[in-house]
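Subject: Di-and tricarboxylate transporter structure
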Amino acid sequence: MTIPMIIALSITLFMVILIMTDKLPFGAPPLLACLLMVLFGVTDIKTAFGGFSNATVIMLASFMAIVAALEKTSFIGAFRRTILKMANHGGYKAYVLLFIIVMLACSIFGTGSTAFYVLTLGILSTIQYTDKLPRGKVIAAAGFACNHPLIPVNVTLQYGVVIAVLEAAGSAITKVNLVKFSILNLMLSLAYIAWALIGYKVLPNKNVEDTKSGNDKVQETVYDLPKWKEYTTYAAFLAAVAGMILQSKFGNAAYMIPGLAACLVLVIGVLNFNEVRNNIGAPIILMTAGVIGVADALGSTGLTALVGKTVANMLGTNVSPFILIFTFCVLTSVLATLTGSTLGTVYVFAPMAIATCMSLGLNPTAAAAAIVISGWNGHFLPIDGMPAMVMGIGKYKLTEFWKYTIPMYFIRLIALTVAAVLIFPM
């Protein structure tokens, strides 16, 4: 291991400890880590602070302003009242219904859709909850549900990656049953449901607000926008969502649509400048931008490839298929989170596992499918887009966050590995 690798790992660990102990305000530890990465020569300033010019961060910051404007509309007011009504009829039932609805909606957008989890968490952040359904009980469950389609029909991205890594490893198998691959995704989603039903008990019973309602009733701010402003806000919101969804077709220009939509709600007076500034510079934006720089610096040291080769050598050629696949799923998911490059990490580890399977005379399809899917299922560290946003909006302490995410992480990967071996016999 090189000195830059050791320094980068040490700084990353220091950042995680600061987040865990709440010694600094939320969003500050990644910025300090970026400064230290540059100070110790791990990376240059452009890379360390590249997160602030990252297209996704710019899109997210703009969308936060759009959500703040949407909060003032009658639609969100009605949505809040519906959630409160659900909560008053039973907090646990409302909790289950919320994350199931999110998983159904995820079926349309597909796994790992930035637009979808930003949209979902943005809307959830505007809701005022009662003590029967605190945000602490909802944000994590509904947030991570954004990664698990209940009807996994939109799996083309991951399916394409599976085919690509099989070809890259020189496998003779270049076709994978798409129906079976969708079933594998369904098994993962069912494992998440199983954990979420239990995880309700470990999520903190707290609201984001500093004060609790006490009598299960909240004092809601009522906005009275003129109809033309309200309809314009809806149009701006839909345009921002469309821009995020269609990014793959329109390229970088699509990332600018949420920013232009935010300018529109500022110009027509739905938000004033202070409101726009506070939302685009929210702690969650600083957190997200900062961890991108840390992840890029960590990945540039060559740590990913080194770890993969070391583990492959340690496993040897006399290892059970389950242990082989599970180990590479853990490595892929952890380093995809740490480096911020899901596809890059998958393309490093999946061919190694596939090659190992072929050397053992095993069908590598299960390994390819499971390892590719695992790349989108880290999430126990709040240093990637979705987990960082969940932790920020839910205002969880790291210990509270880990009580939910660490069991979730292992339950999902074990279920994924078992299902892969059963669906694609080796």
